[in-house]
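Sample entry (298 residues):
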Amino acid sequence: MNRTMTLGSLLALGWLSVALAGGQQDSRIVRMQSLSVSDNLYVLSGGGGNSLALAIDSGVVLIDTKLTGWGRPVLEAIRAVTDAPVTTIIHTHAHGDHTGGNVEIPTAIDIVAHDNTKAHMAKLDAFTGGGARFLPNKTFGSKMSLLSGIDRIDLYYFGAGHTNGDIVVVFPEKRVAHMGDLFPAKMAPSIDAANGGSGVAYPETLARAVAELRGITTIVTGHTTPPPGSPVRGMTTMRDLEEYAEFTRDFLAAVREAFQAGKSADETAAELKLPERYKAYGMERTRQSVQAIYAELK
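Predicted structure, serialized as tokens:
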């Protein structure tokens, strides 16, 4: 690689800010942390959904590019560990807080996503007109693999959930998986019915992911802020994913029971009771989630 450094040697890197012309500082800040000592895989938080960057000699593979306007801070953070350009982008799904930075990364040769994600992205303002060249140019239906050896990447589609194009990005030799917004955080499920999301299918989709992802120890969620430090300690684990799959199952069961009892969606959202072990889950989106499930059950 042209230039590679560990984040520990860069004062643990911490929060990186981008200097603008004239010495001003950009307020958009990306936090970049290594996931393991002497490894080449980094998590980038801030500015939208969590991203991963794999730095290899042939170029950087970037999973999700954050909001529009955040491409430059992402690139500046990556330049702290390598001079190699971003040559491949992988998208976990279509939403703008995961895809908006594409237009600021002109070095990308391959943009990879699920078939449905490309169709959803094509409807976003960022990808109309001249932005269309930043749409995915490699898509797949159920599984795709990239690279080989310790850097191999496996891409899986397990079914509808948050949207109908969410994929899981797996680094099997590094024992890491990026779930995107299929597992956004420990919170009520976010269901984008307009883009094929399904609260009814959600638990089964996650159950298939749990069954497939054997040997994985570290889970990168769509929006959980990683703990401080580099390398990171205390990341989300496979057990957390298993619990989230159980949570979505119990959430659906409770909503279905209320629906069958003739309660309105608003009544169900206000009265929803879940097992005590989920008491720390963020439930701010409960009403929207219940409404989406009711629409399906009808």
